[in-house]
Specification:
Elements lengths: L1 H19 L11 H18 L11 H134 L5 H12 L1
Helix pairs in contact: 1-2, 3-4
Length: 212
Amino acid sequence: MFVSSAHAASTTETTVAQAETPGADAHGTPGADAHGATTAHTETGAGHEKAVFPPFDSTHFASQLLWLALTFAVFYLFLSRVVLPRIGGTIETRRDRIATDLDQAARMKQESDEALAAYEQELADAKAKANSIAQTARDEAKAKAEAEQAEISAALEKKLSDAEASIAAIKDKAMQEVGTIAEDTATEVVRKILGGTVDRPSIAAAVKSVRG
């Protein structure tokens, strides 16, 4: 755009120079004025070739600043109306998603803590129940063993008493038989020694006195 403006200005200067230069004669033959016009046109072309680059030309600073301001305003409006709302929406969406994930993680942690506490409580209850069952079984086994021991002891005591009574009866019987044997033996001995009839009651009394 700036180059086209410079080219238009140069063309205008060349046209003005040609208008001010005297023209050719009636026959169209160029004279001295035509030569001067040619020289002016050549000088204008040389001036056009040595022109300053339009962006660096101070005569175009005002228009450049204007277009810069317009471009900045359009770019600012584009950023504020299109880009920034989209970026803000994306950030807000990600923020909401992160907050939701954090809430879900906290809820899951709380649920896991509650499940762990319930498991530990159930484990403690199971251990207490197992200990109670084991203690009950031990108590029952001990009571049963004590009852069986008492029954065995009672049976042994009865058997011992019966044995002692039987031994006493056998002893009494044996002692009675010993007395009878002693009486018989003493009677027979006295009969053989003394001869004749022997007084049985006297022999029995004598044997009893000796045993007594």
